[in-house]
Amino acid sequence: MSRLxxxxxxxxxxxxxxxxxxxxxxxxxxxxxxxxxxxxxLAAWSRYSRGWFRLPDQTTKDYAELRTWARGQGVQIxxxxxxxxxxxxxxxxxAWVTAGITVGCGPDxxxxxxxxxxxxxxxxxxxxxxxxxxxxxxxxxxYRAAASxxxxxxxxxxxxxxxxxxxxxxxxxxxAYVDDPSALVAAVAPRRQRRHWPLLQQCIPGVxxxxxxxxxxxxxxxxFAHERLRDVRPSGSGSSxxxxxxxxxxxRAASEKLLRAMQWxxxxxxxxxxxxxxxxxxxxxxxxxWGSLELAIAAGVDFPLLWVRLLQGExxxxxxxxxxxxxxxxxxxxxKRLIHILHGPPLGFTGTFPSVWQGLRDLLGPQxxxxxxxxxxxxxxxxxxxxxxxxxxxxLDQWRDRNRLPEPVNGPHETSHGESRPNGNxxxxxPSNEGLRTAGxxxxxxxxxxxxxxxxxxxxxxxxxxxxxxxxxxxxxxxxSAPRTTHxxxxxxxxxxxxxxxxxxxxxxxxxxPWNYFKAWVRVRRRLARNDxxxxxxxxxxxxxxxxxxxxxxxxxxxxxxxxxxVGRDLKVTPAGRVLRFLTHRVSRAADEVILVSEHMRAFxxxxxxxxxxxxxxxxxxxRPIPRDEARQQLGLNSDKPLVLFVGRPETPRKRYPLAKxxxxxxxxxxxxxxxxxxxxxxxxxxxxxxACDALVFTSMQEGSxxxxxxxxxxNLPVVSVPVGDVEARLRGVEGCELxxxxxxxxxxxxxxxxxxxxGRAAGRKAVKHLDERLTSQQVIEVYRSALGASRPAPxxxxxxxxxxxxxxxxxx
Length: 813
Prior knowledge:
Strand order of the largest sheet: 16-15-12-13-14-17-18
Radius of gyration: 29 Å
Number of helices: 25
Strand content: 15-25%
Number of strands: 31
Helix content: 25-40%
């Protein structure tokens, strides 16, 4: 009897990879596992795993290394588990075949019929299947018109979950629920995949139903169906509790027609939504193994084994018989479910969302009779433990992604994370190429002009020793975090580093939680005990708590609501805001130097506090004028009406978005215009919005030195603002801008009308030249020197490196 081939299973951290490993291992196949996760993957805990390989990242280069390793292990079949793995294997499919390894998925031409949701729906309509009304606009104006026709709420879906762009795959942004026109742009922008705009789809009520199949070149050879008893993500996702059920003949017929039209080869899950009135609506096709795969195997349909036999050229007899009523529970899925419940429903979600008590009951309470634990198997028990050993670090990694940045890829402070390192089975992987990624289109060259920094002396031949600064902030704009408007902190750290300061950024998640502050305080004390720093710079007053009691000179930058207090929906300072204000005042009196972003903030502090007024600076290479039509074309804003821009999170009470919206509604009575909300969009696109619009409306009731106003002026965008922060000083004498006498919507509307009827751009760039970040960085360095109480000269200025903090723990040379 010939020996069975060895099989490599990708994405070993998933439960479907574990199901594949157990299925094939029991059948006598040698199984190897790979993952891009840092920790030992779930499937590698199985007794059937012969070894595993850790991918540094998901790129074609990393998969080439994986291929070399797999060949050395005698692997003859690779089973890609996720869409990303399928695309990366297919990117060099010929190389896998040359290495003697069969790729366990169809070619791209077939896969993209399922991976590209627009193509799936097109084929489904040709087959006569019921499909939700779906639009594919190619501009933001098109989305607004389409959403109005469909009626809110609507869904915004990326064309593909993990599209491949060159050597890498893009992350899955998921589906966005939109129930208000003001949230549409924020949902569309992050889901645009280069030239592919996301799909806009009507929201179909009802129950999700799935049909699972294995096809042999278009002919189904195995079927399965289950019902979801509990979803991991209550707004819609895979399930954590499921039960095998009889296959619905109508859903089977629709799925069979669709899969034959696609000439599908391999596993597939066809998803429908049943509203109880109309024929079931086709939602999408997942052309890969699914999360509930173990349930199908437990019920008697061993999809992984059948698929591998097909790949070996064997004939598989069609079957659709399996045991009904088998119930499996994914315990870690219920843990994730509780976390989703604690986070609350996604913005715009219109369905019923469970309470925290319900989530706890689902996790800890009794389960349906006969329920089995999915990862537990008496003959293979260790994955039940591995589920937790993998899952807990996974949650911690997600928390760290939001609260700190990864290690630097390049530079003199590169750590062992940038070295070649061994993996689970002795394989060696090269450093991740994450730091080599570049964004978008090349930057337009800025027109030559004389800036305030032209007066900075030329570099000295030899730089003095760098000032070593620990910068503490809870508002660092990490890539994986929620949208933020605090990129000015990163910009300041970038420019300080470019000026010769050694900056180490300590980023933590505050979330108004004292326990978070205590944990961060402990970590800061450990860092300070190493004596690696000359001083501490805290961004915002509350961050300064982590530096008390002082071990080093302390500089604190106050930016507005920390000194004045946070306001609530009633536009009054909240109890938490009063606590914050009190703590900020205590920190400011303990600090050696305090930086204020606006002169008016001195009134909030004790007269004894040493203060310096240094507004947040500007990067003039990023915020620069470009032609309005060009900016609109890049953003897909093709409106012929004047566009009024609102920058900021509409739900933040102090931003007073309803006031801006009301003012624009009043303006529309006499002059048609449109309000554009720039929130949740990539920071690099903010200059495009500033150049694409005709005016900025600024309605905040509380600010220090609002960056949106300064950035608008740098782009020569006319500004209409209420008197707040230092806006009066910024707009004084700037032609084309207006400061409102009060904050009544009628006053704002009248000012907007005057600005828009006047037309043209403002003369704002000259008014903010002195805020060039290179110049303000030198002022901050002077404050550092003052806090140190020494006469050490300022480090030499060098041209700013905008990628200086793009990756890394932020330890800079």
